[in-house]
């Protein structure tokens, strides 16, 4: 299966790209942000560990219904780097496990290409399971503007703290196979997505031929048959 790693800084446009890949290009999406929310639902192991570590540190850690107060926890960890590390250590193993399960789910259902949307793709070394990596990037000013429009109530300092806690855009660009520049219109972004998908398709076909079991069986049978024929041929030659 060709896993296409999609990453980018906060509010760079990852979800916009993955939505387009899903709706227009019919690709299945594994969304790490969504998975990271599921693994901290009340009752989950990660939830219990978070409550036990952060209760007393983070004010109003829990909402009335028992769910984590994500904005408050976010405010705390993005201004306390050591505690962000603790939160990552608690959540990432569960997120990684759920990602592998989701990829397996799509593989079993016959998909041979899947988009893995992970904000921390390189930081968490998830790029090692990707055949291709794509980064969505935009200028810092655009990023801050979009972030504050979307997360109403987030201060400039909070927004900058989140950006600071992530890999720099420059490093992402160096480490990615493809870069989508998202400073302009959605149309401009969609054009770039089309170009990348067209380029990836041949890689995808090669991967399918190598790993799709029926193709594997056909090529293995062809090799065995050709070896049998050639050894019969050599035997006949020796007998003459
Ligand atoms: C800190 C939390 C509670 C804040 O929740 P909130 O609802 O405000 O944000 P949300 O989860 O929607 O994330 C929004 C964006 O924040 C950034 N972000 C989230 N977690 C992290 C992190 N650990 N390090 C750096 N950036 C992060 C990403 O760009 C992400 O797309 C939450 O992000 C969290 O539990 N993070 C730890 C798990 C994680 O690493 N998730 C990222 C996917 S692996
Ligand atoms: N080209 C664009 N033009 C205008 N608005 C855009 C463009 N691309 C994205 N946006 C808007 O910017 C915001 C952030 O985009 P999006 O949610 O796709 O980013 P993200 O990288 O998935 O964010 P996060 O890191 O929080 O998951 C959204 O409100 C989205 O509608």
**What is the class of the largest domain in the CATH system?**
Alpha Beta
Radius of gyration: 23 Å
Tell me roughly what share of residues is in helical segments: 55-70%
Shape descriptor reads: elongated
CATH architecture of the largest domain: 3-Layer(aba) Sandwich
Low-confidence stretches: none
- How many separate domains make up the residues? 2
Protein name: Dephospho-CoA kinase
Pfam family, one: CoaE
GO molecular function, one term: ATP binding
Organism: Naumovozyma castellii (Yeast)
Structural descriptors:
240 residues, alpha/beta, Rossmann fold, 2 domains, 10 helices, 60% helix, elongated, binds dephospho coenzyme A, binds adenosine-5'-triphosphate
Descriptive report:
This is Dephospho-CoA kinase. One of its GO terms (molecular function) is dephospho-CoA kinase activity. InterPro entries: Depp_CoAkinase (IPR001977), P-loop_NTPase (IPR027417). Keywords: ATP-binding, Nucleotide-binding. Belongs to the CoaE family. The protein is α/β, with parallel strands linked by helices and 240 residues long. The protein folds into 2 domains: 1-28 and 111-213, 3-Layer(aba) Sandwich (Rossmann fold); 40-108, no CATH class. Helices cover 60% and strands 10% of the residues. The protein has 10 helices and 5 strands. It has helices spanning 14-23, 32-38, 45-54, 70-77, 81-108, 140-150, 156-164, 169-175, 186-211, 213-239, and strands at 2-8, 29-31, 113-117, 132-137, 178-181. It has a 5-stranded parallel β-sheet with strand order 2-3-1-4-5, sandwiched between helices. The longest helix is centred in the middle third of the chain and has 28 residues, at 81-108. It is elongated and about 90 Å long. The model has no long low-confidence stretch (mean pLDDT 90). Dephospho coenzyme A binds at residues 10, 32-33, 36, 70-71, 73-74, 77, 84, 87-88, 91, 95, 118-120, 162, 165-166.
């Amino acid at each position: 299966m060709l896993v296409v790693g999609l990453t980018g800084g906060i509010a760079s446009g990852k979800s916009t790209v993955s939505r387009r890949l899903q709706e227009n290009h019919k690709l299945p999406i594994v969304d790490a942000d969504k998975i990271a929310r599921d693994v901290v639902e009340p009752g989950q192991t990660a939830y219990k560990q978070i409550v036990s570590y952060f209760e007393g540190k983070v004010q109003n850690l829990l909402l009335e219904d028992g769910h984590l107060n994500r904005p408050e926890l976010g405010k705390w960890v993005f201004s306390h780097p050591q505690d962000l590390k603790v939160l990552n250590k608690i959540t990432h193993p569960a997120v990684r496990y759920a990602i592998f399960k989701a990829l397996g789910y799509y593989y079993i259902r016959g998909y041979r290409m899947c988009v893995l949307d992970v904000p921390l793709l390189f930081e968490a070394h998830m790029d090692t399971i990707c055949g291709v990596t794509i980064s969505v990037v935009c200028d810092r000013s655009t990023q801050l503007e979009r972030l504050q429009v979307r997360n109403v109530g987030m201060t400039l300092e909070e927004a900058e703290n989140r950006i600071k806690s992530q890999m720099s855009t420059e490093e992402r660009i160096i480490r990615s196979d493809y870069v989508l520049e998202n400073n302009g219109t959605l149309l401009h972004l969609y054009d770039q997505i089309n170009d990348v998908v067209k380029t990836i398709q041949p890689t995808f076909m090669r991967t399918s031929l190598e790993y799709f079991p029926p193709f594997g069986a056909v090529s293995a049978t062809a090799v065995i048959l050709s070896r049998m024929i050639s050894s019969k041929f050599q035997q006949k030659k020796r007998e003459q």
